[in-house]
Specification:
The structure is a single chain. With 241 residues, this protein is of the alpha+beta class. It folds into three domains: 70 residues, lambda repressor-like DNA-binding domains (434 Repressor (Amino-terminal Domain), Orthogonal Bundle), CATH 1.10.260.40; 73 residues; 68 residues, no CATH class. It has eight helices and eight strands; from the N terminus they run H-H-H-H-H-E-E-H-E-H-E-E-E-H-E-E. It has an eight-stranded antiparallel β-sheet, with helices on one face. Strand 7 and strand 8 form a beta hairpin. Helix 2 crosses helix 3. It is globular. The two termini are 40 Å apart.
Length: 241
């Protein structure tokens, strides 16, 4: 059982939370948390449920999965340049917007006769605190990358202008999505801060960050892109989605 090592991993990847700080949130002593992480003691059921809720994971992930394996799942951050591209977008605001948005665009691509297409996605930070906390709503936008000459009917057409991005690749991101994907974003943000790089927020027509999921040799990967200033050193490497 991986509980002891998983608890250490979760605590450190959630803002490097101290044992004492975690103990305060669970209304136990620091010594109790220390015993859990050393394997000398085991939480009662109510504390296990509280831990799973706090770290936004399932009990099965907390108790059985090897979350430490995720330490080798992230590539180094690199600065790349993406040429201008055209896309068809569809946004959803709901309790589970990712599934709804992705499914809609998959059907749309099929209707448009796009047999081989690529899709990107991003969260929509446009909801109020009340919508998020009271009603449990979130926003998500999926977009199909349009090849030259492809029509865009029944979806919002948009262009993403040429820009530089800080990019990280996550190997098998959905094996522990609640932990690996946020860590990917945090790693990029730390790289940007440590190197004095400026974010590029652009205007409302441009995506400041997005995710691209694909398979290679039977393995799922996710590339996370965060837009940076065009004057950022590096990025001579031009990539395409």
């Amino acid at each position: 059982m991986n509980f002891a090592s998983n608890l250490q991993t979760l605590r450190k990847t959630h803002g490097n939370l101290s044992q004492e700080a975690l103990a305060d949130k669970l209304d136990v002593s620091r010594q109790t948390v220390s015993k859990w992480e050393s394997g000398a003691a085991y939480p009662e059921v109510d504390k296990l449920v509280a831990l799973a809720e706090f770290f936004h994971c399932t009990l099965d992930q907390l108790l059985r999965e090897d979350l430490n394996a995720g330490h080798n799942a992230l590539s180094p951050v690199e600065i790349v340049k993406l040429p201008r591209f055209r896309m068809a977008q569809y946004a959803v605001i709901s309790g589970a917007p990712e599934d709804d948005s992705i499914a809609h665009m998959q059907l749309w691509a099929k209707k448009m006769g796009l047999a081989d297409y690529k899709m990107i996605g991003c969260d929509l930070p446009i909801l109020s605190v009340e919508q998020q906390t009271v009603y449990g709503l979130r926003g998500y936008m999926s977009a199909v990358i349009l090849p030259d000459g492809a029509k865009c009917e029944g979806a919002r057409e948009a262009w993403q202008e040429t820009n530089k991005y800080a990019r990280i690749t996550i190997r098998e991101p959905f094996r522990a999505a609640f932990e690996l994907i946020p860590r990917g974003y945090k790693t990029i943000q730390k790289h940007i801060k440590d190197h004095g790089i400026r974010h590029t927020h652009g205007d409302e027509t441009q995506l400041c960050c997005f995710e691209y999921v694909y398979e290679k040799d039977g393995i799922t990967f996710m590339d996370v892109y965060i837009a940076v200033d065009m004057l950022t050193p590096g990025g001579e490497k031009t990539v395409t989605l």
